[in-house]
Write a structure and sequence with these properties.
The chain is α/β, with parallel strands linked by helices and about 425 residues long. Helices cover about 45% and strands about 15% of the residues.
Length: about 425
């Protein structure tokens, strides 16, 4: 891996390079995505089936687009029962973590007859997108569906690309059943997002779409936002390791490569004050590349977006973490808990040498659907909050309103909104 001495200039160059990975930078795809969306919006099922045949080489119709119980049973016959057991143990941790995020409606009242509050209501129907293509991600199935189930969403519709044979990956299908998907549709890409956003004869319109996907999926989610809600526009995966001279270089190298193997646009960065650690990690990376199965992808990822950054001070290292705002942050230092409190921008934070990033991908419980491309500065991981909406509750008795009605009328008149003022004033006509 390249080792770079961190300066103001190199920091700016790296941040600029990282932003090139953002889906918002791929404007050349937007016209194609918009055409797909408009076609699905207008022609519904017919357009979805045409695009599925064109892109996924699978022939579907209204009778085959939705996964049947027989197909679910077949998936269970294929999947190793031990893996089903692992999925169930992962689910237990994920569910228990997200249960702690649940909020309740609340109300406050006063003696003179006011009541204010907030009413929480689960979304009615949610669409979950699960990627297909180069790899299958049953872990993403769990991370998307379980928070929605905990929140109380009434209906969860999942879409995922099928193979040429019209079948969904059996592990993905088993995970969907275990997690509680109500309906599963065999479609992917921008056409799946459009179908969920606008509805077709076979696929119902949803209130919100969640889940990661490729550039076409990301841009489609961006395009339909407003007609439906979305979780975020996800970019390629990324990991940043903050380490000092106490870190194990072999562990650090292995963790960096765990994200670099996702795709050529993934980013893996080490920030350290130790030149010695930097050199040892680079050597370990070279050794791993000789034996890992996805070394071609990893090499391209590291060539494009992999860095080992050496800083003069620990504070400078922490400041750089905040500037990058990584999706995954590992802190492998003398005092990881202390350093964690100094960091403001990160999607998920892993503390200590035994808390490697894949622990969060699969098993620990916190959600692995995280803000990318610097959006951890203002976005949060997927959570139960993403599947509820909040309504404000306001009640005033006449006595309570009489005490403040003149203030409201005065404020409204100051904005020249006389009808607003009148709406309050009519309730006190004839009174001094």
């Amino acid at each position: 891996m390249r080792i770079v001495k961190l300066t103001k200039e190199t920091t700016e160059n790296i941040l600029e390079n990282m932003l090139k990975r953002s889906p918002t930078q791929y404007g050349t795809y937007e016209a194609s995505v918009q055409e797909i969306i408009e076609n699905v919006k207008t022609r519904k099922d017919a357009a979805v089936f045409e695009y599925t045949e064109k892109f996924d080489h699978a022939v579907l119709d209204a009778s085959t687009v939705e996964v049947t119980q027989e197909e679910i049973d077949e998936a269970y016959n294929i999947v190793d029962p031990e893996l089903i057991g692992v999925i169930r143990r992962c689910m237990k941790n994920i569910r228990e973590f997200h249960e702690k995020q649940k909020q309740n409606s609340w109300f406050t009242s006063t003696e003179n007859g006011t009541m204010l509050g907030q009413k929480l209501t689960a979304l009615n129907r949610v669409g979950v997108y699960v990627p297909g293509g180069k790899a299958a991600y049953p872990s993403s199935v769990l991370m998307n569906i379980l928070p929605a189930k905990v929140a109380g969403v009434k209906e969860i519709c999942m879409t995922t690309p099928c193979g040429r044979d019209g079948k969904v990956n059996p592990v993905v299908l088993a995970a969907a059943k275990e997690a509680g998907a109500d309906r599963v549709f065999k479609i992917g890409g921008a056409q799946a997002i459009a179908a969920l956003a606008y509805g077709t004869e076979s696929i119902p319109k949803v209130d919100k779409i969640v889940g990661p996907g490729n550039i076409y999926v990301a841009l489609a989610k961006k395009a339909v936002y407003g007609n439906v809600s979305i979780d975020s526009i996800a970019g390629p995966s990324e990991i940043l390791v903050l380490a000092d001279e106490t870190a194990n270089p072999r562990f650090v190298a292995a963790d960096l490569l765990s994200q670099a193997e996702h795709d050529e646009l993934a980013s893996a960065i080490l920030i350290t004050t130790s030149q010695e650690l930097a050199e040892k990690v680079s050597e370990e990376v070279d050794g791993f590349l000789k034996v890992l199965s996805r070394s071609d992808i990893i090499s391209k990822s590291l060539d494009n977006f992999g860095y080992i950054l050496v800083t003069d001070s620990h504070q400078e290292a922490i400041d750089t973490v905040d500037a990058i705002a990584p999706e995954h942050l590992e802190i492998v230092t003398k005092n990881p808990f202390e350093d964690m409190m100094k960091v403001h921008n990160a999607g998920a934070i892993f503390l200590g040498e035994n808390s490697s990033e894949p622990l969060g991908d699969y098993f620990a419980g916190p959600n692995h659907i995280l803000p990318t491309n610097g959006t951890a500065k203002f976005f949060s991981p997927l959570s139960v909050d993403d599947f509820v909406k909040k309504s404000s509750i306001i009640y005033y008795s006449r006595e309570a309103l009489s005490e403040i009605h003149e203030d409201i009328e005065s404020f409204a008149k100051s904005e020249s909104l006389t009808a607003h003022a009148n709406s309050i004033a009519v309730r006190f006509e004839g009174e001094e």
